[in-house]
């Protein structure tokens, strides 16, 4: 009888949201009010806020809930009042650590893992920077070992959460005693721009704040409802370098998202999924909702049922795009859906996209119980 290989899996997931809720209709109204002197921009704002698939988001900045005349982040003629990048980074430094701690503690509890058992810490963010960074704060506040291997992934964009998952799987493959804690925190709303430019309004329409975390290691008998991790793939899509741009400006970070992104992903990604391998079409699709159009492009390309993309669109609807943190929100929501359905085992794919254009993807298998049945033991088909 063949021996069962250790199951490398996401054994715990945690998420956290800041306290301030942004209703999409109300946010659109206030931005339109700020654009009253620019009818073309106001019409564009109404349209994009209504069509982007977001109903609510969360922010760490209470000023963003104020009326247009009192909010320095809203479009305005007097640019002297606009928060500088330095001021926004001060808010990021103050607000990012508590949010990251909340998500990390939830992930450790979900994985039934003590902080001192963590051997590697990967911190992920593209919406702010300071030193000593979030990684150092987490070591101290969580009680991680001072010698924990710290790996910050900074300024990589929306795909970085998935990049961290793939990297963690590779780390545990090389050392089965490793336990990796990934913590992603993004405060995207701090970079809402005070302008009526279409690119800025598009970004302002669907990005939100939040944090997510997960623990990756070899699953044991104490773990249930895990995601077993299989082969992964990272690729730069050809000819797409200028389609998604994220640069540091004087008034926060400036984002450009090309309207061609959904089409380009639909054109290029199927070949990359095929290169990752697999004879059967995946059942599970954990798609990072970088925008409603991205999810819809893949749904159309693969003929996916609404149920298969419901976790991605549900996260986009309820909290918006939280950049790198979003993929774990999606996987958590998908896990809840599978538990409600009483699913024992289902295989699929998790994937995310970022500047480059970068596509990051990994095979996943949801397993309700990490203790294999006798039949599974005999077949011994776990992925190493």
Describe the structure.
Residues 9-218 form the Chalcone/stilbene synthase N-terminal domain. Belongs to the thiolase-like superfamily. Chalcone/stilbene synthases family. It comes from Paenibacillus woosongensis. It holds the Pfam family Chal_sti_synt_C. The protein is α+β, with helices and mostly antiparallel strands and 384 residues long. It has a domain at 225-376: Peroxisomal Thiolase, Chain A, domain 1, CATH 3.40.47.10. The protein contains eleven helices and 13 strands. It has helices at 24-34, 39-51, 85-110, 134-142, 160-174, 198-204, 261-276, 292-302, 306-319, 326-341, 374-379; strands spanning 8-16, 20-23, 56-59, 120-125, 149-154, 180-187, 209-218, 224-236, 244-249, 252-257, 284-287, 345-354, 358-369. Strand 4 (120-125), helix 4 (134-142) and strand 5 (149-154) form a beta-alpha-beta unit. It is globular. The model is unreliable at 373-384 (pLDDT under 50).
Name the features.
384 residues, alpha+beta, Peroxisomal Thiolase, Chain A, domain 1, 9-stranded mixed β-sheet, two-stranded antiparallel ribbon, 11 helices, 13 strands, disordered C terminus
